Fold this sequence. Notes:
Helix content: 25-40%
Distance between the termini: 33 Å
Amino acid sequence: xxxxxxxxxxxxxxxxxxxxxxxxxxxxxxxxxxxxxxxxxxxxxxxxxxxxxxxxxxxxxxxxxxxxxxxxxxxxxxxxxxxxxxxxxxxxxxxxxxxxxxxxxxxxxxxxxxxxxxxxxxxxxxxxxxxxxxxxxxxxxxxxxxxxxxxxxxxxxxxxxxxxxxxxxxxxxxxxxxxxxxxxxxxxxxxxxxxxxxxxxxxxxxxxxxxxxxxxxxxxxxxxxxxxxxxxxxxxxxxxxxxxxxxxxxxxxxxxxxxxxxxxxxxxxxxxxxxxxxxxxxxxxxxxxxxxxxxxxxxxxxxxxxxxxxxxxxxxxxxxx
Length: 321
């Protein structure tokens, strides 16, 4: 399964970067192939590597990254506590992307699809003791166009419904809960899908009557369905909004909202934490940060403005579909 999924994300990265270059029309992705160091403070931590692709200063995209990685080694102590396990080895692979458009009329987008395995390193064979999928995709607009929100969520729902009618409401709610900037008491964006620990339940006695039993092959088919829907969810929005005019004041608002995006990624995001705690490549981990950001003291949008409209939506999740 890990080889099968890794091949999938290799191909998906090519599809996404090719399409985004076409949409931008000017900028091209720069590619870095990197290897994960196999030592840290004299201790063996494993290895692996990845393929980072970054686009900058384009006609449409100010900065964006579409990264794949496959890493393995001993599970760090901080991760052992997170997973509530003892010493173990791990393998993790995934595709992670963040795209920051130049225009404040075009939303930022984030997506991630990943696969994880854990092994008992006390046994000679390194027995597989756990495997799961995770991922999702979510949208962060600076100005709210309700038809765009509905399109993004409808695309997510359509992908989910092909596998289980319960998935969209469940994973939308998990997305709303996860991408919540608790210290600001507001959402990072308008959500989408977030799922994690998607494990084999095909032989489970614990699976509820209302839940469909899912094998790892079933989960693979679901996660790749969502991955394949990404361009359909995002690109039509970009094409519709990329040529709209905007003012310097609207650009300032975009940079203030980007600050909230940075706060979430550095304070709350588990993926950032995992990368930092497993001796990951720092340039790839922090590629999600936008190039131009502002933090304005005690900033509040004008009452009745389009900016305030966005803030009010971010205070409580909306059912877009």
